[in-house]
Amino acid sequence: MLGAIAGDIIGSVYEADNIKTKDFPLWSEDSQFTDDTVMTVAIAQAILTGSPYVDNLKAYYHNYPEVGYGGSFRSWAKSESRDPYNSWGNGSAMRVSPVGFAFNTLEEVLQEARRSAAVTHNHPEGIKGAQATAAAIFLARTGSDKAEIKTYVESQFGYDLTQTLDQIRPTYRFDVSCQGSVPPAIVAFLESTDVEDAIRNAISLGGDSDTIACIAGGMAQAFYGGVPDSMIQLLLHKLDIPLWNVVEQFADRYSLPICKENPLKNDPSLP
Fold first, then answer.
1. What is the CATH number of domain 2-17+24-253?
2. DSSP annotation string for 160-174
3. Which of 18, 96, 185, 260 is surrounded by the fewest CB atoms within 10 Å?
4. pLDDT tens digits for 207-243?
């Protein structure tokens, strides 16, 4: 899930200031983790501990209440309700990457993606977005090529992945729905050459930049076999210790490549 977190942090400064180019600084002083990272880590910890998704989502909201949540999720998380609110928003897809890495069969991944989504996003589009994202990650990490991933997602979920980034980019606008976010994020991954390129692709579309990059980044990590150490070092500089500890435990449990050394943690030259 490091690719997803990287996409979120890198994209955080472009959500409110969209760009339509891949030529931009990867990191800045203002780069920060948002609700995409917090909810991703919440799902990861729920998988690690076996705790209910609903409990973890609410607990992590209260631990990190000011990181950019949508209004519907914020109202739900602050309430006593444990019932979903029929959302079709992209929150179910942005947080699902740990599911794609943790389970051993496509059937399990689809089932668990549904479970992780349905505690809030029980609308069919909310569930579909989470399942498509998690399935793409599972297929990527288990040896499927990009053509196979594209064919599966199109046939299983009905997403149109035929447009290229160059065709999508000119008219793409801010869209927080799963149906408006997940397909372009998948195309950003499909056209990429590595993890960084996938994230740059996603951000270059504009729109909900951190979330699209989060979704694409998780797929890219799975397909390319990890995240570059240089990027991990910068993530270490941006994440707090509780979030990083869960990331590290998850990587250890599921044998995901991760850089253990942290010589740059206290390097004042880092943004």
1. 1.10.4080.10
2. ---S-HHHHGGG---
3. 260
4. 999 999 999 999 999 999 999 988 888 888 899 999 9
